[in-house]
Design goal:
This protein is an alpha/beta fold. The protein has a single domain, classed as Alpha-Beta Barrel (TIM Barrel). It contains 8 helices and 8 strands. It has helices spanning 3-21, 39-47, 58-71, 97-100, 113-126, 152-159, 184-199, 218-223; strands spanning 29-33, 52-55, 85-88, 106-110, 130-135, 165-171, 209-211, 228-231. The chain is globular and about 45 Å long. The two termini are 19 Å apart.
Length: 241
Amino acid sequence: MTLEQRIAHVEQRLQQACARSGRSREDINIIAVTKYVSVASTLEVIRSGLVHVGENRWQNAQDKWYAARQTASGGDTSATAGQAVWHFIGSLQTNKAKEVVGRFAYVHSLDRLSLAQAIERKAAELGIVVPCFLQVNVSGEDSKHGLAPEELLPFVKELSRFTHIKIEGLMTMAPFEAEPEETRPVFRGLRQLRDELNREAATETPVNGLSMGMSNDFEVAVEEGANWLRLGTILVGKEEE
């Protein structure tokens, strides 16, 4: 399938998931995950109109980021380089935060105080506020990063003193299941945690974002309230190295 065909295929399935769950398509953002494709393919993704681009390592993303910046009129050097909005979606090492902050508009994997401190320091230096999703390990898998659900509220309270971090939402990764329906409790659990935060008025403004759902399970995630989908192979494809 061509990129255009994959976009149309995903869009059709997304529209159907919205219809089933009574949701508006306009409420859902797609992040095109380009970690498995080349610089040229990433630029094609951006030219196609997929505004949000996701990468999980700066060392793998940097050639794409700089290439996109070079194609932007006026030599834009911001986190929207190349007329795209860049999302850091992988586990972020504390000592790598300085490479990500200022280049990526969103961080989807804030899960510990040391990382918050590193993001805060770099953001303060740049004079910016970084929208972050708090990663929660809803499934409890040892292989997954993220806060335990019971750690979320205390962590949010700790973050209230960081003036250069904005809690944009929550993020989770469900186990890969042969039957996507089996991921539903994970996505529902993240939504319930988000709703609990809002009932507790744990943040100055209500938290809305739910970054959940990938190529294998995005329709179930939409039905459970996702408004940020991270789609790689089903949308962008995968190239052999």
